[in-house]
Design a protein that fits this description.
With 299 residues, this protein is α+β, with helices and mostly antiparallel strands. It has helices at residues 39-43, 45-49, 114-121, 134-152, 160-187, 192-208, 215-221, 226-237, 241-259, 264-270, 276-287, 291-298; strands at residues 11-14, 20-24, 31-36, 52-54, 57-64, 67-71, 74-78, 82-86, 91-96, 101-107, 128-131. A hairpin with a 2-residue loop joins strand 6 and strand 7. One of its GO terms (molecular function) is DNA-binding transcription factor activity.
Amino acid sequence: MHTDFGDNHPLRSVAKDPILVYQMDEHSEGIALFKLPLPMLQQYQDELAHPHRHDHYTCFFLEEGTITTCIDFQPVTINKTSFLLSYPGQIHQVGSAPPCKGWILGFDAKLIDETVRNLLEQSLSSVTLLTLDEREQEWFRNMLILIDESLHKNKTVIFHHKLVQTLLNGFIYRVAAIFQVQLNDRIRDYSSRNLEMTRKFRQLLNQQVLICKQPSSYAQQLNVSTSHLNDTVKSVTGFSVTYHIQQSILTEAQRLLVYTDLSVQEISTRLGFEDPKYFIRLFGKGKGLSPAKFRKNNT
């Protein structure tokens, strides 16, 4: 399956997973920028409203209008005072998207500075929705115009790719700076050491949850005892390491139950459980109903 959003917007959809995945085209520079309103996107509105993943980061910045969407079962509203950054692998399902003015920027994770990527991936929240003041809105608007011009004009000039990547990094550095300031306002009561360990745990969890389900495995990678890791994570988030592991597993299970036709046994195997009955008990304990009942209630 292939969807081409235009010569200047190299995205394609690939049904390589039970859930549709939008990828960067292999011939792109790892960046796709859409200026809204874009008539071509309206042709694919039904397809875009269907649950899907991205294999890249995606930013949503609106100058006029409102978009309502759902990311991993969390409702999100985007307007001109907000900026949404979604992560690779998250499930998107657009609720309503009337004609809006703004931008959607997608970019490959390998294009951004590792330090910034680590900061974003260690987020304590699964949805990164920033609040922008008028000065920040103007800055993002101007930067996106520069990226757009650099992407689509004079592609043959010397240093074209370097220029685009430099502008992208500047854009992401500003996102990270605002993210850090707003994060600090929310977590000022926690020690920096505890926050750092919790962030690193969250990053490892996002990367390894399907193959690493024991708290001791994460503690070993972080060179601390299991009890110390658990106490630290609980002091920052209010929940134990085991709880976070189970919630990550349950989130992926919910995605597969609602957005695919895989059987419960197939989902159990995909999530790394040898015994489907154990998975069913775990899901029931975490969500209060069986996987089959959850699927019936949400499809």
